[in-house]
Amino acid sequence: MATVPLKDELDIVIPTIRNLDFLEMWRPFFEQYHLIIVQDGDPSKTIKVPDGFDYELYNRNDINKILGPRASCISFKDSACRCFGYMVSKKKYIFTIDDDCFVAKDPSGKDINALEQHIKNLLCPSTPYFFNTLYDPFRDGADFVRGYPFSLREGVSTAVSHGLWLNIPDYDAPTQLVKPLERNTRYVDTVLTIPKGTLFPMCGMNLAFDRDLIGPAMYFGLMGDGQPIGRYDDMWAGWCCKVICDHLGLGIKTGLPYIYHSKASNPFVNLKKEYNGIFWQEEIIPFFQQINLSKESTTVQKCYVEMAKQVNEKLGKIDPYFVKLADAMVTWIEAWDELNPPTKDSAKATNAASK
Amino acid sequence: MATVPLKDELDIVIPTIRNLDFLEMWRPFFEQYHLIIVQDGDPSKTIKVPDGFDYELYNRNDINKILGPRASCISFKDSACRCFGYMVSKKKYIFTIDDDCFVAKDPSGKDINALEQHIKNLLCPSTPYFFNTLYDPFRDGADFVRGYPFSLREGVSTAVSHGLWLNIPDYDAPTQLVKPLERNTRYVDTVLTIPKGTLFPMCGMNLAFDRDLIGPAMYFGLMGDGQPIGRYDDMWAGWCCKVICDHLGLGIKTGLPYIYHSKASNPFVNLKKEYNGIFWQEEIIPFFQQINLSKESTTVQKCYVEMAKQVNEKLGKIDPYFVKLADAMVTWIEAWDELNPPTKDSAKATNAASK
Q1: Given a cut of 60, is residue B149 above it in pLDDT?
Q2: Do B175 and A285 touch (CB under 8 A)?
Q3: d(CA B263, CA B282)
Q4: Residue A250: is its pLDDT beyond 50?
Q5: Which of B126, B131, B258 to mutate: most A Cβ within 10 Å?
Q6: In B188-318, where does DSSP find H-type helix?
Q7: pLDDT averaged over chain B?
Q8: Mean pLDDT calculated for residue range B181-201
Q9: pLDDT recorded at residue B353
Q10: From the CA of B170, how many Å to the nearest CA of chain A?
Q11: Could you report the per-residue pLDDT of B92-118, keeping only the tens digit for each?
């Protein structure tokens, strides 16, 4: 049923500070697609891309030139800068992957085409209103089980596909420190919809989404250089996206595909980046759990701006950082709309989604 | 961490209308436990149990004798009668299994000890308030991922463990009719908590629960002989249990273990039993999704009686059947309390759970 889309429907976004040797391993799967490389850190450094790949590369100077003063919403010295790539893409689908992620193998020893599985996930509906115990009912060999209401079997459009990681699991610094040797070796052969009303920790390492449906909510926040927090870029985007998907009647799936995450980042450095987030998330998550978007917020942009206002009002009390972040959220939407003026098609898609 | 409990902590409840030859296959796993066999249908028929099993057997005459007029709440000519076994048990844990379920094999070809996995599930906490993308964080080789709030990592007590089925999936009659050849061959190596606020279709074929925590809510309703509905006994129990677990802060897990479901029941017969349920569930599920239990309902019994009142008021409008069912729910609790007078320990457990 689901097929890999043609080259002109998907961009691969890669944030990096180094030469992209890791692409060699992905060549059979990525070569036909266009890459958007967002160079993090020193713009004078040259990033080498293996021959044969079709790509555009943006460094900090490019971002400043394209966005002008609005470039302030794009993080510097943090992989959160990747979201600039989502903004400049003109494709329907985005797949983003970290440069320390390699091709994983399934239990039969076969290379996993992560991109193909993400697209399958995005092209099949989600089922956020009721749990199906045999997991994704749209997968071959599965269906809705006895007791699943028939009125809910059409499902809703899938906006986000969250993939997982074999080898190095995506642990926070305290868990990394406590379990330095833990490796994820369990291949769980499933995809499932995260139910409505439930938040999840979205990791940006191996992630795909439908830009038309949810793109403007995929903002990775203010992290890294000059900010009091790091490693919460994808979490922030995940909380915002989940609340907006729930509001607009869109789905988020998690599970397959796996990538092979090769190297744990330094837990001491991570702890320094994370400690504010670890503390703040205890208040941020209840905030997102209780947030209610108004009926007037019928597009992702409107939802996002309404959310920014509430971030300012309610999270601003925790730390002035959230006031700055709320401003950056609004700037992000302004920049998004400038680079992506609404078309008839995108308006139609949003309307359909909000029904 | 989790170990299989001693013989005196668990009963296996089996509803049946035939000789229990299927137990031969389960002998290595079940022989050390006590069986409660609830004989469905004609009480004059003799059910043969293979030698060596320790069991008690109740037929309709026994049920009538033990419960007197309250026996009206126990279904006749339907496997829903199994819940009588939950009531007469005196153990902490119940495992219930259908007599057409055999030992399944894991992908390595090894026999699956379903009971052992259920107990593992029940002894490990659940995490209903936030989704963990690596599934059960308490399993060996897994943990909470980055971004999972630390305040939620203690989890909550697990009340129910819902296992799955290889070979014949648990489909409703329409799906059986449309996909007569579909078999479930996918072994998904995971256990996960059903998030708070999300309902699921609980199947009674391969199910375990903590009687002390949730027993009085495991009522399988009025089905079969003289009733306008069948095959919704476990669904009904699942909806009620989920709402009460959410209210009391208890968890429900689904996934492993698998059993091998040998034979599809007749889809034409099933359709006749199900058609009212298929129709009614479109209103029942929104009812359970919006139900709110009061703060005063601090025990499973109080929750259940409050729920019965709402069933009467709100679902009674759909069909007089629900008025009768609401009465039966109250009768069930009366019968439960008569057979299970509260002890200091059970009061303590309920209080701890409701905190």
Answers
A1: yes
A2: no
A3: 28
A4: yes
A5: B131
A6: 211-214, 233-248, 267-290, 300-310
A7: 95
A8: 98
A9: 47
A10: 6
A11: 999 999 999 999 999 999 999 999 999
Does the CB of B224 have a partner CB in chain A at under 8 Å?
Answer: no
pTM score, whole prediction:
0.95
- Higher-scoring residue by pLDDT: B83, B8: B83
Determine the residue of chain B that is closest to A280 in CA distance.
Answer: B149
List of residues 6+ apart from A77 with CB closer than 8 A: A40, A41, A224, A225
The residue in chain A having the minimum alpha-carbon distance to the alpha carbon of residue B190 is: A188
Query: Average pLDDT, stretch B41-67?
Result: 97
* Nearest-neighbour CA in chain B from A171: distance (Å): 4
Q: Write down the residue that tokens 């938040």 correspond to.
A: A199
Tell me the C-alpha distance between B25 and B101, whole Å: 10
Q: Is the pLDDT of residue A348 over 60?
A: no
User: Encoding tokens for residue A287?
Assistant: 């905030």
Single-letter amino acid code for the residue at A31: E
Residue A214, both tokens: 């949810």
CB of A144 within 8 Å of a chain B CB? The answer is: yes
Cα angle A299-A97-A49, degrees, rounded to a multiple of 5: 120
Three-state SS letters, B169-220: CCCCHHHHHHCCCCCECCCCCCEEECCCCCCCCCCCCEEEEEHHHHHHHCCC
Rounded to the nearest 10°, the torsion over CA B86, B92, B98, B101 is 180
Establish if B264 touches chain A: CB-CB under 8 angstroms.
no
Q: Do A146 and B172 touch (CB under 8 A)?
A: yes
Quick check: B352 pLDDT over 90?
A: no
For chain B, positions 41-70, list CB contacts with chain A under 8 A: none
The reply to whether B254 touches chain A by the CB within 8 Å rule is yes
What is the reported pLDDT for B171?
A: 97
- Residues on chain A touching B126 (C-beta within 8 angstroms): none
pLDDT at position B1: 44
Would you tell me which residues 153-182 of chain A have a C-beta closer than 8 angstroms to some C-beta of chain B? 162, 164, 169-172, 174-175, 179, 182
